[in-house]
Design brief:
methyltransferase activity; globular; methyltransferase; 11 helices; single chain; alpha/beta; Rossmann fold; TylF_MeTrfase
Length: about 280
């Protein structure tokens, strides 16, 4: 028998990744290139771009699996509701299954949400698991990443002035929840810099913590404020483990606590997860 919940979550993933409308993403890039003068406009290409630009379409499709930008250009990341790719969405799904199946108490928290895709998926997951009494905390500055202020982050400037594509305001993210019919009382927005907001987060227990702050500072602020609240057996997902600054923050946090670095389980070129010891 078909599991309608699994079908819903699969369609939700495809929608968040914009799999259904990749043709239109490619059309936008094609038209942008035409305006810039790097390509000549051809109605045939615009009409049947999947076939006329088959190599580009194949690259874009592959990028939706591992979360890499088309053309390795972040300007091409702004069309879907998540940048993390299918592999990391599947990992998030699997981790949610683990904490719910094992009845790990607590809420779901994401630190660094961009357009809200991972949190929208968490809200969708809760919708088909109504017996699970958890909230989804959507924590972000909603102004992009801060300019580097610590020595560990120098050379990694992802701020709004450099990458405006990464700055998404909270009303846009709220509207994204509404588009999916997933705005509800279980979704809690937390606006501000992590160092200010996360120590005051109104949760006593966290079953799943997802970190997507890129920088050393953002990663360290998240761990310092929230790791102690992660329930035994709870799961921590780190989206940016390929970034040296992020890895350093994780290593130094556990060194400060005189703990061994947890065993990391990888899923693609950058996403990892681990389970807090019971």
């Amino acid at each position: 028998m078909t599991d309608h919940g699994d079908l819903y979550l699969d369609l939700l993933k495809r929608s968040l990744l914009n799999y259904v409308y990749l043709d239109n993403e490619l059309r936008i890039i094609y038209l942008r290139n035409c305006i810039a003068g790097s390509e000549l406009f051809d109605t045939r290409v615009l009409h049947d771009i999947r076939r006329e630009r088959s190599d580009a379409y194949a690259e874009m499709t592959a990028g939706r699996s591992d979360g890499r930008f088309f053309g390795r250009d972040i300007r091409n990341a702004g069309y879907s509701h998540t940048m993390i790719g299918r592999a990391r969405l599947d990992m998030l799904h699997s981790c949610l299954d683990k904490v719910v199946g094992d009845d790990i108490p607590g809420d779901f928290v994401e630190c660094g949400v961009w357009r809200g895709g991972s949190c929208i998926f968490m809200a969708g997951y809760l919708k088909i698991n109504p017996g699970r009494k958890s909230r989804v905390f959507v924590a972000d500055s909603f102004e992009g990443l801060p300019p580097p202020s610590l020595a560990q982050d120098m050379g990694l400037d992802l701020s709004k002035e450099i990458y405006p594509e990464l700055a998404v305001d909270d009303e846009t993210v709220r509207e994204n929840f509404r588009v999916y019919g997933l705005d509800s009382e279980v979704v809690v927005f937390v606006k501000g810099w992590f160092k200010d907001t996360l120590p005051l987060l109104q949760t006593r227990e966290i079953a799943l913590l997802r970190l997507d702050g890129d920088l050393y500072e953002s990663t360290m602020d998240s761990l310092e404020a929230l790791y102690e609240k992660v329930s035994p057996g709870g799961i921590v997902i780190i989206d940016d483990y390929a970034i040296e600054q992020c890895r350093l923050a994780v290593a130094e946090y556990f060194a400060r606590k005189s703990c061994d670095l947890p065993q990391m389980h990888g899923v693609d070129w950058t996403g990892v997860w681990f389970r807090k010891a019971a």
